[in-house]
Amino acid sequence: MSMSDRDGFIWTDGKLIPWREANVHVLTHSLHYGMSVFEGIRTYKTPQGTAIFRLPEHVKRLFNGTKIFQMNMPFSPEEISKGIIDVVNSNKLEACYIRPIIFIGSQKLGISPKGNSIHTSIAAWEWGAYFGEDG
Fold it and tell me: pTM to 2 decimals?
């Protein structure tokens, strides 16, 4: 199944939007200069419900990465944590992979990212072994 052609929702800049509408422009700064920060987070189905593995630690590491690139995050760690939970719940997922990504927008292109907006997207989907069945 194509990653771009799925049902469900992706949290983008503070809002849940339909999966197929979550797009970025081809001249997005991060696409050309590789300046983005992401995390990979797993959830697990437990007898008590869905458990997100070490959510505070993942969010802290995500924010530490934005400091390295001097990105001024428009959201707090608490808002990102809530966005992660909202994505999992809105997609009715029990065991899944979560990919929050922070990236620089497309207002201008050039080595310096200054003058560009900072964007945040959070996607979650069912995904088996990360390295495939042979691991």
Answer: 0.93
